[in-house]
Amino acid sequence: MEGLSWSASGRDIVRDVDLEVRPGETLGLIGPNGSGKSSLLRCLAGIRPASAGAVRYDGQDIRGWSARRIARHTAFVEQATEAETDLRLGDVVALGRMPFRGRWRGPDRTDREVVDAALARLGLTGLRNRAWRTLSGGERQRAHIARALAQRPRCILLDEPTNHLDVRHQYELMDLLAGTDRTVLVALHDLSLAARYCDRLVLMHRGSLVASGPPGTVLTPGRLRGVFGIDAETGHDRLGNLTVACRGVARDPA
């Protein structure tokens, strides 16, 4: 991202963001509601054209790229939606193979193997024939993530992927993302989860990037007070993972 900005209705939502995401890195995008995280991800996914600046993959500006070309490089998992469809769960996951298929070609052996592997990775093999409308929010979210894996992208963008997931599946998902060799950019609200699994954190506030670095250097009590408006302290659990404990709402946020 080079000087990336996006505006809507005369209001700057993302302001002049400069950021390079390293190959194979798990980068956590954090910030309060309305800080521009989702809009930034949509610009990176090519869904929203930037008002200014550029998005580059391997040095190539994505302006002018087709949706199919973008989808061969990156997969985007939005926050869970309630859209209804007559498709089965397995059919939704198989949509991840569309960027690699001709208009009239059906799924081949490779497509089926990739979809099978994605379903297995998310523990969904036994649900592949379930109708979409019968699934829980957590099952739908895991299916969307399996679809992204089926794309076999070099980069995965995820907007609050742990929403609707129970605690076990939150940790399983973050284990999977942190353990993949793909480049991952994930927006998260759970600061302890972000600190535990992300190589680097990017903190956004009012559309701007205000801090970037290892979790311990970004999640300071001063920034938590100034950006999130909370009194909090950081520490480490018995395994050495960074944790964030909120004591309450700050009475005098910066």
CATH names the topology as Rossmann fold
Question: Assembly type of the shown chains?
Answer: single chain
CATH superfamily: P-loop containing nucleotide triphosphate hydrolases
Total domains: 1
Q: Shape, please? A: globular
Q: State which percent range the strand residues make up.
A: 25-35%
Classification by helices and strands:
alpha/beta
What is the CA–CA distance across the termini? 28 Å
Mean pLDDT: 91
**Adjacency order of strands in the biggest sheet:** 7-8-9-3-10-11
Sketch the major β-sheet. Answer: 6 strands, mixed
Question: Which CATH class?
Answer: Alpha Beta
- Helicity level: 25-40%
Q: What Rg do the Cα atoms give?
A: 19 Å
The name of the CATH architecture is 3-Layer(aba) Sandwich
Number of strands: 13
Task: Give a short summary of the structure.
The chain is of the alpha/beta class and 254 residues long.
Characterise the protein shown here:
Keywords: ATP-binding, Nucleotide-binding, Transport. It comes from Planobispora takensis. InterPro entries: AAA+_ATPase, ABC_transporter-like_ATP-bd, P-loop_NTPase. This is ABC transporter ATP-binding protein. The protein has 254 residues and is an alpha/beta fold. Helices cover 31% and strands 26% of the residues. It has a single domain (2-219), classed as P-loop containing nucleotide triphosphate hydrolases (Rossmann fold). It is built from 9 helices and 13 strands.
Topology summary:
Layout: E1 2-8, E2 11-17, E3 26-30, H1 37-44, E4 52-54, E5 56-57, E6 60-61, H2 67-73, E7 74-77, H3 89-94, H4 109-121, H5 137-150, E8 155-159, H6 167-179, E9 183-187, H7 191-197, E10 200-205, E11 208-213, H8 215-218, H9 221-228, E12 230-236, E13 242-249
Parallel strand pairs: 3-9, 3-10, 7-8, 8-9
Antiparallel strand pairs: 1-2, 1-4, 5-6, 10-11, 12-13
Helix pairs in contact: 4-5
Keywords: ATP-binding, Nucleotide-binding, Transport
Domain ABC transporter: 1-231
GO molecular function: ATP binding; ATP hydrolysis activity
